[in-house]
Amino acid sequence: MNAHWLRWLIVPILSTILFLLGYWPRHAAQEKLAAAANAAQQDLPRVKVATAVAADGGRSLTLPGTLTASRQALVNARATGYVARWRVDIGDRVHMGDVLAELDTPELDQQLEQAREALKQKEGALEQASANRDYAQVTARRQDALLAQDVGTKQTNDQAHAQVAVGEANVHAAQADVAAAQANVRELGQLVSFGRVVAPFDGRITQRNIDVGSLVSAGGASGTSGSQPLFRIEAIDPIRVFVQVPQAFALSVKDGAPARVTIRELPGRAFEGHVTRTAGTLDPASRTLNVEVDVPNPAGELLGGMYAQVAMDAAVSHRVVRVPASAVITDARGVHVATVSTANGKGEVHLVAVVRGLDDGREIQLIEGLQGGEQVVVNPGADVADGTRVLAVTGP
After folding, report:
1. pTM (2 decimals)?
2. 194 — phi, psi (to 5°)?
């Protein structure tokens, strides 16, 4: 009985010993291989990756823009004189034809008076020439009558008719002198009228460079820095916005398309406008289309020079892929992203050529190069190269 129980105890013990003798070397070898793999994995450079996301090409396109006046002009003087008074200042709204400033023009006034007196002289000379011609005509008729009665001579008759022709020529010359003098008076009168500087269109005064007593020369206001305009006037209703549309969306922007303008300083408000015209060609440096948007601004809330965001409907004919802005590499080789084909958390870097689309500062849309779903290196170094072995990590 004791031998029987001893046999049942020895068999399991021997089986356990034999199992351990076979399993333990293999387990130790596997642990050694895993440790070596972990050590090799720790030696690989760690790179943060993000998934490229494919998106529909149709979307509301939001681009930065700058507000500018629809019309603007520098108002200069057309006459030389001194500022007698100015009637508007910066910020004032004016209408076309409103007087902005009045000038004293003593020299022009004197020249105009002299021209008027000269005109009177020319008119007097015309009257004298007309009288001489009329007298010559009377004399010629009398000579005709005497010659018909054989009392006068042919020579005397010819002289009388010659005097008539001379009289006519003198009258024509005097009439031309009068016309020239009248034109001179009109010209000087027009110059004198330029002493009243008027607004060329409805708008707002944004700059004034004169004061009472300032010497103003024709073409500008004199100063230490040379001639400068008297006023600057801008029309801001409607106000104009220029935006640069990337090539991928350029063909979908049409004249008359609606646009919404928002200003950071006016939160919660959107100003409706529309596309009025496009440049019709891309800027070869930036590959963008210059687009003009007009926005009604009756209350003058939008000011020229403001920074704005312009949203408009735009689309591309194919899907685009969004990646972090920092993932795009732009250097002498062109525009690329570094993708990682991962397997067990490690992989190999491949540089893929791409075409940039819309960039909002946080993400960039790629028009060509990726299909979506690729793992892209978020912050590739300057020395990133094809075939580099890396350890890909995700998350913050």
Report:
1. 0.58
2. -70, -5
Cβ proximity of 106 and 217 under 8 Å: no
- pLDDT category, 225, cuts 50, 70, 90? very low
Report the pLDDT averaged over residues 323-342. Answer: 85
One of 3.40.50.1240, 2.40.50.100, 2.60.40.10, 2.40.30.170 is the CATH number of 61-70+236-314, namely 2.40.30.170
Lowest mean pLDDT among 10-14, 79-83, 177-181, 371-375: 10-14
Strand partners, 363: 324
> Binning pLDDT at 50, 70 and 90, where does residue 29 land?
low
> CB under 8 Å to 336, separation ≥6 — which residues?
328, 329, 351, 352, 353, 354
3-state secondary structure of 255: coil
User: CA 63, CA 192: separation in Å to the nearest integer?
Assistant: 50
In order, the DSSP letters of 291-315 are EEEEE--TT--S-TT-EEEEEEEE-
CATH number of 46-57+319-393: 2.40.420.20
pLDDT of amino acid 89: 93
Instruction: Write out the DSSP string of 134-160.
Output: HHHHHHHHHHHHHHHTT-S-HHHHHHH
Closest CA to 86 of 107, 101, 70: 101
